[in-house]
Design goal:
Length: about 400
């Protein structure tokens, strides 16, 4: 396999809309990034993180040292939770504005990075709130510069234009997509991810798998998104078992991180549909549900619905985990069962019922899928008509 010839200690510079530094030790590039920010006239920044991972991984020490060396003053907001809320974003934005921050540095997984992107918008639109953003009361065209230091291998948010933040009182979990929130720089260092617990390792990786299954099968898919999808699933099939067995396996972490990165680029190009549109109501109602776990629970039921329409593509991209598919419509039940078995072997065997959902919740979930701002847009990209009946069938199959 060609992966064995890759020097994972070589810091690669990958140029998408974002300049990404990938490799073991890439966190050292924060020194150069801080110097570049300083040259642009930035002398104050807000750092947006979760409660502790930025410290436990050692990333925070590196960032502090780099900012001090570049004479960039900083203030820290470290209250972002999984499934971040508009109130957290507003609190961080208030802190950043009062400090006079000119840039936003995110340290964490998808939640801190998405919150940071939202803060970056509010630094430019000082009369707006996070609810204004996520209820689509205006269209941002500018944001403060963003630097994303990634601590998980799943979301791809460090290289894309998306962010997701919840509105708790409405149980909404909308997604935004604006060119102004592509990070300027991102750091993908697998050495920062060896402390990820096994369950989080599984959930974030399955998030990446869902990104590419959806991106490859939307009504606006393209060959680039499909090619990245096949490669992502191949890498996950090979390296997720290794990372589960040995969390310190840097080669496994490197290729899961690379898979996540290209999955982010895949759905930045091909977009998303059912699985994300239907998971957001789940973790909107139950914020304690890990996003990737919810996606994993839904994935077989989604593929069962779309396989007749996109069998040829799915047979190709799923070949590393379900070999021998031809793409024929009658394979749909087989793929449904095989995906459930593969997910179980990876560590996701739960059903929605195990997460506290009942048949009585389905009508509410269907309503949220169609009424939450932005989710209808995703449903409209599905390869089969996203009727309430189809959405209800997916939830029922996953129950």
């Amino acid at each position: 396999m060609w992966e064995k010839s890759v020097d994972i200690n070589l810091i690669s510079e990958i140029r998408a809309k974002t300049t990404v530094y990938l490799g073991v030790g890439a966190i050292g590039k924060i020194t150069d990034i801080a110097q570049e920010l300083s040259k642009k006239g930035i002398n104050k920044a807000v750092v947006v993180t979760g409660k502790s991972s930025h410290i436990k991984t050692g990333a925070w020490d590196k960032v502090k040292h780099a900012l001090d060396a570049a004479n960039i003053a900083y203030t820290l907001y470290s209250k972002v939770t999984p499934n971040p809320t508009v109130d957290q974003v507003d609190e961080a934005a208030h802190l950043a504005r009062a400090f006079g921050a000119q840039a936003v540095i995110a340290i964490g997984g998808g939640s801190p990075i998405d919150a940071a992107k939202s803060v970056a918008i509010l630094l430019e639109y000082t009369d707006k709130t996070a609810r204004d953003i996520y209820e689509f009361k205006f269209t941002p065209v500018k944001a403060a510069p963003i630097v994303a230091i990634n601590l998980t291998h799943g979301t791809g948010t460090e290289v894309d234009r998306f962010a997701v933040v919840s509105i708790p009182e409405k149980e909404y979990k909308p997604a935004i997509a604006y060119d102004c929130i592509y990070p300027l720089y991102a750091i993908d260092d697998p050495a920062l991810m060896t402390m990820l617990p096994v369950d989080q390792t599984i959930y974030v990786t399955i998030d990446a798998v869902n990104h590419v299954v959806e991106a490859a099968t939307t009504t606006v898919n393209n060959p680039f998104a499909i090619s990245l999808a096949r490669e992502t699933i191949k890498l996950v099939a090979e390296y997720l078992p290794r990372a589960k067995q040995d969390p310190q396996d840097l080669q496994a972490r490197y290729f899961l991180l690379y898979a996540s990165l290209i999955a982010g680029i895949s759905f930045d190009n091909g977009l998303l549909h059912f699985t994300h549109a239907l998971e957001h109501p789940l973790s909107g109602v139950r914020p304690e549900l890990a996003h990737g776990k919810g996606l994993g629970i839904l994935l077989p039921a989604v593929v069962k619905q779309i396989y007749p329409a996109k069998g040829a593509i799915l047979a190709d991209i799923l070949a590393p985990i379900i070999p021998g598919l031809t793409g024929a419509e009658n394979e749909s039940p087989k793929v449904y069962t095989a995906l459930k078995n593969w997910l179980k072997s990876m560590g996701i065997s739960a059903r929605l019922a195990d997460e506290g959902f009942t048949a009585g919740d389905i009508d509410k979930l269907v309503k949220l899928a169609f009424e939450t701002p932005s989710l209808k847009t995703l449903l409209d990209l599905a390869p089969v008509p996203a009727t309430p009946e189809v959405v209800r069938n997916i939830y029922s199959d996953a129950l």
